[in-house]
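Support request, please re-run this one:
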Amino acid sequence: MKVFSDAKTTLKIQNHGKYEIAYRYRITPTCDINFGPLIFGGRKTKPFIIENTGVFETRFSISCMIAQSPERGKKPPLDLTNRHNAVGGKVKPEYMQKDMCIAQTRLTVGVFSVYPCTAVVLPGSQQVVTVECSGDELGSFDQGLIIDICDRDPSDHPDGIPYKLLAEVYKTVSTFIHNGFFED
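Re-run finished. Output below.
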């Protein structure tokens, strides 16, 4: 090998020591956010926290859960290793390409708005994610989200961490008060 020439070598690194390199996180509350009953036209805000309890910075992204078709039941796993474009380079599925090109700071789905929906969380710190529910539509709402924390253990929710938002928006009803007046 010449001293001034470029050298390319692939190194395979394995951790055989007692220390585990892991990206650890905690989400609080651990499951659904339920806004409960909400009067039509009203608005409620609730937070949840994504905390980095590991030793490396980590990134997260929040996206809308896509409902599965009832006839299939379960979607087939994606095989990203064999997909190539015309030039021979590997490509990601179309939905992943779109998500990576558009860095959103707010995700709005139905009556729910979530922000920020992407962030970098430093070790030992946390990111507060705000969820707003606006009572602009009547009905019961059950929206699934997927929280993707980069570099987490692949056995820990391989398709993303499911998280639900629940609310019920209703109209007020006039009630008769004892002295004969109606009240909204």
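The longest strand covers residues 139-149. The longest helix spans residues 94-101.
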